[in-house]
Amino acid sequence: MLDFEVWSLRGSTPLGDFSPSLMSPSGVLPRSDDRYMNSDGRSICLYKLLPCLLLTLLIAVPMRAQMPDTTGIYGERKDTLDASVFTARGNGNFLSKGKDIRTEVITAAGLCKMACCNLAESFENSASVTVGYSDAVTGARQIRLLGQSGIYVQMLDENRPVMRGLAAPWGLNYVPSQWLESIQVAKGVTSVINGVESMTGQINMEHRKPTDEIPLYVQASVMNDTKTDLNVASSLQLDEMGKWSTVLLAHGSGNFKPMDHNGDSFIDDPWGGMFALSNRWLYYDPSGLQVRFGVRAIHDGKNGGQQMGGILPLWKANVYNNSLDGYVKVGVPLNEDNSRNMAVVADFNYVDLNSNFGSNPYIADQRSAFINLLYQDQHLESHHFTFGLSNTFDLYREKLNWSLKPLNRKDIFEGDSMLNDLGAFVEYTFHAEDKFSAITSLRADWYNGAGVHFSPRLTLKWTPVDQLVIRANGGRGLRYSTPLIDNIGVLSTTKLLSGPLMEHPLEDAWTFGGNITWYLPFDKSEKTYLSLDYFGTRFVEQMLVDYTGSEVFFYTLSSLAGGYSRTDNYQVDFSTEPFKGFTVTLTGRFTDPRQTLVHQSDDIKPMASRFKGVLNLQYATNLNKWIFDFTASYTGTSRIWDFMVPESDDTYPYCGSKFTPGYPLLYAQVTKRFKGFDIYVGGENLTNFVQPNPIIGAEHPFDLGFDASCIWGPLMGARVYAGVRMTIWKTEKI
Q: Which of 16, 23, 497, 619 has the fewest CB atoms within 10 Å, counting from its CB?
């Protein structure tokens, strides 16, 4: 008898096989000066936090999650947990043919194409999602989808809403990509089951599963600028019946050496460290009952600003962030075939932010709770119904001391805000085999302070022939605005702040669009396709932010007579495998963003790129022993704020007009695979393009007009890295 050991790069199921969603269409903290204190005036010490982080692995009193064969509660499940697993390396990025909504999937293989230390770095192969910096001093990242800020994208963790409020500005940095099995990017309005904050789309993260057969996974990497990343994961099955299983996830990363390559006295990337621990559990009963729960704790401490010299006093940006969250999902089948089921999803999140920008402290905390009660009926083959009630509760406490020494002025912005969204919804899905589907949904929400609002949504999918898929969807989205948190970059300025910073108007938008995907008949694997998209967003109400050289204005769209805010987004995707082992993906996106702003000379939305193109080439030798990845992207022009337009080309030679230049970026990586571990080396931004003069007024940071928030290009130049991935799998002789 022959013995075979079967190894895989990641998860224990074939790539591209994901848990279904709920009927969804889809560091070490360096010591700082005395100003770096917590809200009680005590200095921040990491050693005090570590016991709390370790304790969280023992906590089993969480709240947070979703429901049945819908939220993934009845998702991937193997009755024989120690069975051999055969997997194949799939495309890193592809468009899902089966999803009702246009959905781009970034697989485990795609997450390994580049350094991808965290979620913010996982979209370089995607033209749909653009990732940039909120400012040049804190490392906060922001995404754009359909030409709009990431605050209008609903972030999901296995179909649970996450990264809301204070968790959003740095949330992308707090999800290690090596914790994930896949990322799914859905464009347009999606299911109403998790609320209606998905104005432009959803990004769903699938984490490593407790049922994965991975006793130990270790990944470590280091860059030439001392940026270091370490991840450890372990999935364990705790009884022979397979009822109990758990996955432990640990992460540590940090920059240990401040660097200032452009000589402006401000370090290019904040230094410090971040630790994260997560523990996820699954209880599965043969009757169909499933209980999923987990807890995660994060500690992050970063120091930015003038850490390398300059004229005293130094302008520093110190950010100390702690968060603790937990969730529970309970799915209960109501009949033998699970065609009728109920679920309860509960979630709790606590965020504590203590930060200082120059001489201005910003202290805030957030307590959020989410609960969802769901009933699903699928006993009719073509007709599915979902009914539910949900409640989202947020309590914010914020205090900002805003001192402007040149004006001898000090403003205090302080407030406690309680935001509550109580909703009821119904969703009906009709399927005519694989040819046609329609999803209609209606949700009614009561917002405290804003009354009752109705949100209808419609999704259509038609497959007239097997090689052609046509999709369309549209509907309404609503969300509370949190002006200061949504625009955290304004804290990296020395300007007057005017407007309702502590108020929370309800933002209101309609999004509509569609997609046509043609799978070319070159092979049976459907790896060759051409896809065309259009999506448009129209705001009825929105919190607007308007920059001048000395002031930042906040005001609502409804306060402008005849004001408007809209975007139109077009995209084309082409993917093919000309021969075995070699894949080519080409994507181009054009966005036309328009917005009425009082202090700007035209309606082109500032600081939003209008074009992005991405070319990805990948070649894998036989048995994937060597893997070569190459990505080239081109980001087009962005309109800058009027106050940034130079009086002469000598002032800012990169910006002789209202538009920034376009710029190319190159990424490359080579991976050598051995039995049980991979070694890889690569480079990022090999064109070495960085935004010139990213900080306005860097010579005098305490003077009126200093601004480190006007970022349109890369802040870090060429970097090289090396890393290792080691996976120990359970194997069975066959």
A: 619
Helix (H) or strand (E) holding 467: none
The secondary element (H helix, E strand) that includes residue 572 is strand 565-579
What tokens were used for 361? 């402290």
Q: Cα–Cα–Cα angle for 513, 519, 522, nearest 5°?
A: 160
Per the structure, how many domains does the chain have? 1
H helices within 170-256, ranges in order? none
**pLDDT tens-digit series, residues 118-173:** 888 888 878 888 888 889 998 888 889 999 999 999 999 999 999 999 999 999 99
pLDDT, position 52: 39
**Residue 41 within a domain:** no
Task: Look at residue 418 and tell me if it is in a domain.
Answer: yes
- Residue 79 exposed, middle or buried by CB count within 10 Å (0-12, 13-18, 19+): exposed
C-alpha–C-alpha distance, residues 674 and 655, integer Å: 49
Q: Are 671 and 707 in contact (CB under 8 A)?
A: no
Instruction: Report how far apart, in Å, the C-alpha atoms of 30 and of each of 17, 165, 264, 335, 546 are.
Output: 43, 26, 22, 57, 35
Dist CA 105 CA 492 (whole Å): 35
Q: How far apart are CA 108 and CA 99, in angstroms?
A: 19
Domain membership of residue 17 (yes or no) is no
For residue 672, what are the CA distances in angstroms to 497, 524, 623, 680? 53, 29, 11, 6
Q: pTM of the entire structure?
A: 0.86
Cα–Cα dist 23/631, whole Å = 34
**pLDDT grade for 649, boundaries at 50, 70 and 90:** low
Is residue 211 within 8 A of residue 237, CB to CB? The reply is yes
CB 394 within 8 A of CB 402: no
Name the helix (H) or strand (E) containing 203. Answer: strand 201-207
| In the block, residue with structure tokens 């972030």 | 155
Looking at residue 484, what DSSP letter applies? Answer: H
